[in-house]
Amino acid sequence: MIEPYLALAAVVVIAPFVVYAVSYNRLINDRGEVADSWAVIDVELQRRHQLLPALVESVRNAAAHERRLIVHLTEAQAATKRVSSPATRLSQEMAVDQAIRDVVALREGNPSLDSHANFLALQHELTLTDDRVAAARRFYNTRVANLNRRVDAFPSNIVARRHGFTTAEFYGI
Amino acid sequence: MSQVPVGFIFVVLAAAGTAVWAYLFEQKRKADARLLATERGFHLDTDKTGPPDEPFALFSTGHGRQASYCLWRDDSNVAAFQYRYVTGSGKTRQVHDFSCVLAPTSFFAPHLRIEPEGMISAIGRLVGIRDIEVESPEFNRLYQVRCDDERFAITLLDHEMIAWMLDSTSGRGAVRFEFGGEWMLASIRKMPFDELFGFYDWAAWAVDHTPAVLPSLYPK
Asked: What is the least distance, in Å, from the CA of B51 to any CA of chain A?
């Protein structure tokens, strides 16, 4: 039979390793979830970007005297391809948002756009895509909060520091 | 011929009288309920039936499960009803009564439960065991969220839904929500029948105001 003090000693020796391993695996898992949820945002943003050429095409005639709006939208879209971090990406995507809003606002001076089925369908699709981006963003932020909490909390903060886990950036906060 | 004791006859008559009185009282209650439902534009079925077929946790708990006083409108698939199940037997027998609203959704939901935070989950939170958390600390403190698909829970609980739940449940007590497949179930400790109409409208509003993006992400 195992002596009680030996069992206790075994627990004292083994427990820290178990806690360490569990913390490490959870950090790996959380970091993976942050990456996965960022990929979902990226997919939704790509979906929005794919709608933009059609949007530009549908307003081209109406915006003949407002070419700068289309140029601005195209430039803003191109700028998003040169960034990767959430914070930088956010500011670039906000510029795209504003440019889209300006282009969509052309309907105010061009009532003919309201009867343009393609324009209306695109407008609906853009709104839906914005909702999808917002949903993906909320999910991403909960994953980031989860990872950041683990990186900061004891005892996982010891493991995080030792293995180079760092907090992630929120998107849109 | 032996004589029947007068006391026995008295007891039998009293029991029969009580049974008749209870029957008439129940009939009157049902008639009043039907009248009230008609006045408010509802149909009412007062018969007792088994629980609905939808696979919600509430409908598989305990035994002696029955729904009654089912309310619905012609122009909607939403139904409100009183629901009861029993746990234990003999001295440990307990009857659990609820008022429920079952409403169809425009999306196909993974199983999700939103319940008021209990003592055990509150203690768990203190030691770092967390359920699904949304962006509102107040909501996280008041509600426990469990779901097969965390992304669905986060998508469902957007700012509008959270604000609505925080605002409107305060005067109504602890409402529990379950989503599964094409249905949403809202349940609460049993309320008087005349308050069931308000609960119906309240829950129907909730299902109408779920985020518009859900049918696109979780199509039927």
From this structure: 34
Q: pLDDT tens string for chain B (220 positions)?
A: 567 788 888 899 999 999 999 888 888 888 888 888 888 888 888 888 877 888 899 999 999 999 999 999 988 889 999 999 999 988 899 999 999 999 999 999 999 999 888 777 777 767 666 688 888 888 888 889 999 899 999 999 998 888 888 876 545 567 899 999 999 999 999 999 888 898 998 888 888 889 999 999 999 8
Task: Say which of A37, A138, A146 has its CB closest to residue B135.
Answer: A138
Å between B155 CA and nearest CA of chain A:
5
Burial class (CB in 10 A: 0-12, 13-18, 19+), B102: buried
Are the Cβ atoms of B134 and A142 closer than 8 angstroms?
A: yes
- B65 by Cβ neighbours in 10 Å (0-12 / 13-18 / 19+) ranks as middle
ipTM score assigned to the predicted complex: 0.75
